[in-house]
Amino acid sequence: MNLMDSSETVKGKILDKNKEYTDTMEKYSSIWRNKFWPRDRNKWHYSVIQRSQKLIPFLNPKTSSKLKPHTVVLQGPAGVGKTTLAKNLMLEWTEDNLKKTFKYAFYLSCKELNQMGPCTCAELISKDCPELQDAILEVLDQSQRILIIIDGFDELRFPPGALIRDICGDWKQQKPVPILLSSLLTRKMFPRATLLITTRPWALRQLWLLMQQPLLIEMEGFLEMDRKEYFLKHFQDEDQALRAFDLMRSNTALFSMGSAPMVCWIVCTCLKLQMENGEDPTPTCQTTTSLFLRFVCSQFMPVPDSWRGWCLQAPVKAVCLLATEGVWTQTSVFDGEDLKRLGVKESELGPFLDKNILQKSKDCEGCYSFIHLSVQQFFAAMFYVLGSEEEEDREIHKGNIGDVQKLLSKEERLKNPILTQVGYFLFGLSNEKRARELETTFGCRVSTEVEQELLRWKVKSDENKPFSVMSMKDVFHSLYESQEKEFVKDAMAHFKEVSLRLKNETDVVHASFCLKHCQNLEKMSLKVEKGIFLENDTSLESGSRVERSRRDYRFLPLWVDLCSVVSSNENLSILDVSHSFLSDTSVRILCEQMARVACNLQKVVIKNVSPVEAYRDFCLAVIGKRTLTHLILEGSVHSEKMLLLLREALRHTKCNLQYLRLGSCLATTEEWDNLFSALEINQSLTCLNLTASELSGEDVKLLCMALKHPRCSLQILSLENCHLTEASCKDLSSALIINQKLTHLSLAKNELGDGGVRLLCEGLSYPDCKLQTLVLWGCSITTLCCQDLASALINNNSLESLDLGQNILGQSGVTLLFEALKQKNGFLQKLRSTFTF
C-alpha cells in the first residue's frame, strides 16, 4: 500500500468513527427528549429554553466571531431549566442544527461523572462512544470546532482545594474526573474549544478561580407571565387559577421559587386539591413551610386506624436521612452506594416514588433524586424534628450531617447556601399544629426539643450584640415561618435595637409579624429600597400604572401593619428612617402612627428620604409631641412649609424638643425667619445644628437677632459648612456679647478668613462672653489673625476648647498662641491646630 492509499484509509476510518459517534448521539436523542420537566411538557418549557438560548452568543449567527466568548456560564436556581437547555443543545446538534459551528459536541453531566473513577481526558469526552478514542487525534486537531457542555457543576463532588491542584495537560494521562474538568476549564485541555457550563449561583466562586473572562448568563426560568399562564392551564377554571396565582404572589419567597416550573406544579397541585375539597387555601400560602407541608401530607392521606402512618415510619425516616445527607454534601442525586452507606433500602423509597416526591434519575441508572431541591430541603428539615425511639440510629449517620446549631450558623450557610432554606423550614416545623399534622400523616413522634434548641440558639447568638441587616432579615424570616406567637415573643425578648432593610413585600410581612412581639424594642432603623412604593414613580408607563395601583392596594395594608409598631410598642423611643424611597401614602401612614398619643418616640431621624414632601409631613406629625426631644432632618431638604411647621412645633405649649438638626436644608430668607422667630419663644431647645444648610448674610442676621433675645435658650449652635463669609461674623460677634447662654459654637468649613475671625475676636474678648467651645476648623485662617486670637484668649475667661485645625497658621502664628496661653487668666483646656511653616 502506498502512502496516499494509507492516508485515504485513515481518513476513511476517521469518517466512519465520526459517523458512529453521531449515530450514538442520535440513539440517545430519543432519551434526551424525555429529559424535560415531568407532566405538562408544552410550549412554556420550550419558550423558557428559547429565551435563554438567544442570549448565548455562539448560538446567534449575527454575532461576530471575534465577539463570541469561548466560555459561557449559565447560572440560575434549581429547576429553572439549565439542564434542559444543555440537553436541548445536544438534540439540536444531533439534528444538524449546530453542525456548521461545531463538528463535535460532548455532554458531561456532573451527576453522572461522580460515579466515574480516574480516567483519561480522551476516555472522559468519549464515554458515550468509546470507539471515538481511536479518532481522538482528529478531534484534537479540530478543537476550535468542539462544543463541550459541563452540566451541573454545582453537583460535582471533590475534596476542598482539589480543583486547583494537579491540573493536567496530557489527554492520555489518567486523573480523577474533577481534575480533568478543571483542566478543561483552565484550558490546559482543548484550549480552543467552546465551553458551556451550567451551575447554581453558589458554585460560581469555585468556577471563577478556574476560568478567564467567561460570559455569565442568568437563566430566569418562568417569568411572571409564564407562571400565570401555567396556573390558567393547570386549573382550567379561570377564577380558581387567578385566586391561586394571587395567593402564591402574595408570598414573595414562594413566588420567587415559582421561577422553577416544578414548584408551580407543586403549588397548583396542592391548592387545586384544597379548592376541590372546599377548603380555604389562604393559610397554605402564608409561609413556604405551610405550602410544602400541605403538599407532602396531601400525598399520604391517613386512614382512620392510622395503620398506613405506622407503615410509613421507616420510609419517611429513610427519605429524610437521604435528603439531609444531600443538603450537607450538596448532592441531589443518590446512587446505590449512597443508599448502602446510609443504610437505606430501595424498597423504602417506593411510597415516595409512587407519589412523585422522589424520581428515578434518567441520566444515571439506579440513581434517585427529589423532584426539586426545595422538596429535598423540606425533608431535610423534617429529619431534625422527627424523633426516634432508637436515638443511636441517628448518631450512626452524623458523619456528614451537622446538628441544629451548625445548621443555623452563619459560617455554614456562607459555605453552603442550601442550608438556609432548610433552616427556614425547620423553624416552620417547630409549630405545634404542623407537628401534629406530621405525626398524623407519618405516624412518627415529633421531637418537642427542637423548639427549645432553636430558642437557645437565638438567645446565644443574638443577645446583646449589634445586628447586621442580613442577620436581622434572616432572624425575622425564620421566626415568621414558625407562626408561633409565644415562641416569637420569647425569641424577640432580647432585641432592643433592630435595623430593617426592606426590599420587598415579604420583608415587610416578616418584620411586622416579629416586631409586634418585640416588647423590649427601643430603637428601630428603617431603610426602604426603591421599587416597593410606586405611587410617586413618574417614569412608569401608563400600562404599568394599573399594575402599580393593584400592587399598592395589596401592599399598603402590610405597611400599615408594620408602622403600627411605632404607636403600639411603648418602649420604642428612637426611629431612624434613612436612605428610603417612600410615597405620599406610605409617609402619611407612618406619620399617622407617629402622631398618636400612644407613640412614645423621643428621637426621630429622617435622612435622605423621598419624596421631598415627606419632610413636611414628618414635621406636621411631631407638633405637640410631648415625648420628642431630638429631631434630625437631613438630605437636600427643600420642602415647602417645612420650616413653618417646625416653627409651629417649637411654639407649641407641649414642645419638649431639645435637639434640632437640619442638614443640607435649602430655604428662603422668609422661611428661615419662620424658624428663627420660634427661638425667641421656645424654652426647651438647647441645640440647633444647621450643618451644610446654605445661609445668606440676611439669614445669619435674623438668626443672631433671635440669639440676642433674652428668652432664647440655645446653648449649642453648629453652622458648619453653611457658606458663611466675613460679612456674617459681625452679627455673630455681637450675639456672643449679648447671649449669656450660648456655650458651644461651630463655624467649621466656612470661608471666614482673617477678617472674619478678627470680628469674632471682638465678641470673644468681651468680659460677658460665656462661650466655652469654638470650632474654626478649615476657615481659611492664616498667621495674620493670630494676634487677635491671642488677645481674645488672654481676655476670655470662659473658653475651654478652641479648634483651629486645617488652617495655615505658620510657625509665628502658633508661637503667638502659645505665648497667649502662658499669660491666660482663663481655663483653656484644649487647643487644636494644624499648621505649616
TrEMBL record:
Record's keyword terms, sorted: ATP-binding, Leucine-rich repeat, Nucleotide-binding, Repeat
Residues annotated as domain NACHT: 70-268
InterPro entries referenced in this protein's UniProt entry, alphabetically: LRR_dom_sf, NACHT_NTPase, NLRP_HD2, NLRP_innate_immun_reg, NOD1/2_WH, P-loop_NTPase
GO cellular component: cytoplasm
PROSITE patterns per UniProt: NACHT
Keyword Nucleus: no
Gene Ontology MF terms: ATP binding
Gene3D superfamilies from the UniProt entry: P-loop containing nucleotide triphosphate hydrolases, Ribonuclease Inhibitor
Superkingdom: Eukaryota
Pfam families: NACHT, NLRC4_HD2, WHD_NOD2
GO biological process: regulation of inflammatory response
Protein's recorded name: NACHT, LRR and PYD domains-containing protein 7
Gene designation: LOC101359994
